[in-house]
Recover the amino acids of this structure.
């Protein structure tokens, strides 16, 4: 559960995720949905609606003493996510453990926000609903938990949000909550045009009725309607809030609030499991305390986090055994991995040099002046195809092929006497003879700089403390793509490679290089020289 560390600090599941094994032993209805993996870990199939419902009902019963019924054809809420929202409303209103009154717009069949808020904090809720099935289930869930004195479920017309619900109300509510329909149509609900094609499919099932998951214009227009109502109601509520399923909805809604002159606006992120949601809140009261938006510390930490990959023990041992083929005799597998990385970087024309490091690691300072690692595999395959299509020359009377023909040796012998038969597996950034792609203007400047005598020969790259240093020259200083520090560390039998960003134009280029280095190491073991 990758995002749990970023849950709300008071979320009970932040540091203690649900124990499926314990819950299965206590609740038979949940036990039948728990499976045991090959390593003995209890798991739940989150793509099974019945399993998700069983988990939600079990957590509410175990951790909050709540008993609910939810039909499979209506939205099945996840408890950690809803709990994050409740805790944020506590932050907005200063209402943790204090009596507060709120409105839940579209409470759903589970009526989960009012039930959590009432059971945890004694809050009073006005819960609105437009769907008949959801309305009936919500009333039943309130009654069977003896919460009728704190939660009032009301049926409202289809198009209404706040205005009709408050028409007969005279009190000033502390807040409103809303989990709006995310999608504008069936295609978006199925992920056809609402999801980036590069993202993996959702890890959980998408349940819910039409009114729960779809609205005209999607969540963006739905929340704009709440904003429109708030402009008329203004101080009838101290805080207006809503949860968003798409980060791209946040900026236009904040801009809409700015245009309308709303004085207090804030937002936050809800992180749980593999899911992220965003929330927006605004107020017309000048005396409210505005919680700060998510601190940039987490984003900065993510940006500073090194790129890492692990060379497993058997792979590191094989690279160590093959190190002699590149003229090296390292003493440890970590040194062998570093030697292979230096060879790959040399072939890719990435400037590098050894720098002082700790006793247990080897460090290289990398300076990339040209993107030579993109489409390497495609270029290598194209070169192989061109070689296969060359016409075969007739052999000379002596049986030797004509020089330069397709039957002639592809390369000369190396210093250790072995032929470069696997040159096809070595990095060949521009082996097809074509000019390299120039996707960015700064690369053109970098390429011009590499034509200087100080950098024309790849063998001039620094590969050790005793190697000659490369003089970058004044023209290279402003032309590099990025600089990073590469650390190679031995951990038990494995070798860990880390790449730390130093400076440059685009960190994505370092990500690409990291993947390229890892793939070359694995390919070397699969097809050794």
């Amino acid at each position: 559960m990758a995002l749990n560390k970023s849950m709300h600090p008071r979320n009970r599941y932040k540091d203690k995720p649900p124990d499926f094994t314990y819950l299965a032993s206590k609740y038979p209805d949940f036990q039948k949905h728990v499976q045991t993996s090959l390593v003995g870990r209890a798991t739940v199939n989150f793509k099974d609606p019945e399993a998700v419902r069983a988990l939600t009902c079990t957590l509410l019963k175990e951790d909050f003493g709540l008993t609910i019924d939810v039909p499979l054809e209506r939205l099945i809420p996840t408890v950690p996510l809803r709990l994050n929202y409740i805790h944020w409303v506590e932050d907005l209103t200063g209402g943790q453990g204090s009596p507060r009154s709120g409105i839940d717009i579209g409470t759903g069949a589970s009526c989960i926000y009012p039930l959590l808020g009432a059971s945890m904090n004694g809050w009073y809720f006005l819960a609105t609903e437009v769907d008949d099935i959801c309305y009936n289930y919500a009333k039943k869930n309130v009654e069977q938990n003896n919460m009728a004195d704190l939660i009032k479920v009301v049926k409202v017309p289809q198009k209404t949000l706040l205005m009709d619900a408050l028409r007969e109300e005279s009190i000033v509510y502390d807040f409103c909550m809303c989990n709006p329909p995310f999608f504008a149509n069936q295609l978006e609900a199925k992920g056809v045009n609402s999801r980036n094609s590069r993202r993996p499919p959702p890890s959980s099932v998408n349940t819910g009725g039409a009114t729960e998951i779809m609205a005209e214009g999607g969540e963006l227009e739905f929340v704009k309607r709440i904003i429109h109502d708030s402009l008329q109601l203004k101080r009838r509520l101290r805080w207006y809030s809503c949860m968003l399923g798409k980060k791209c909805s946040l900026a236009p809604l904040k801009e809409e609030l700015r245009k309308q002159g709303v004085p207090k606006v804030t937002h936050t992120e809800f992180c749980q499991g593999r899911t992220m949601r965003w929330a927006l809140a605004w107020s017309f009261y000048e005396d409210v305390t505005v919680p700060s938006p998510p601190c940039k510390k987490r984003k900065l930490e993510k940006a500073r986090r090194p790129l890492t990959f692990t060379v497993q023990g058997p792979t590191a041992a094989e690279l160590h055994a093959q190190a002699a083929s590149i003229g090296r005799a390292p003493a440890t597998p970590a040194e062998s991995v570093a030697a292979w990385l230096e060879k790959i970087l040399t072939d890719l024309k990435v400037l590098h040099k050894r720098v002082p490091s700790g006793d247990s690691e080897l460090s290289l300072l990398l300076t990339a002046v040209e993107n030579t690692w993109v489409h390497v595999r495609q270029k290598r395959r194209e070169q192989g195809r061109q070689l296969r299509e060359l016409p075969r020359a007739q052999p000379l009377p002596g049986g030797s092929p004509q020089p330069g023909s397709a039957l002639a040796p592809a390369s000369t012998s190396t210093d250790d006497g072995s032929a470069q038969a696997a040159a096809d597996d070595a990095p060949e950034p521009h082996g097809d003879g074509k000019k390299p792609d120039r996707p960015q203007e700064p690369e053109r400047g970098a390429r011009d700089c590499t034509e200087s005598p100080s950098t024309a020969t790849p063998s001039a790259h620094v590969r050790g403390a005793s190697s000659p240093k490369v003089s970058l020259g004044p023209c290279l200083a402003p032309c590099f793509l990025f600089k990073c520090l590469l650390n190679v560390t031995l951990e038990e039998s494995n070798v860990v490679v880390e790449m730390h960003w130093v400076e440059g134009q685009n960190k994505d280029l370092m990500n690409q290089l990291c993947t390229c280095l890892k793939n070359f190491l694995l390919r070397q073991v699969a097809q050794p020289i």
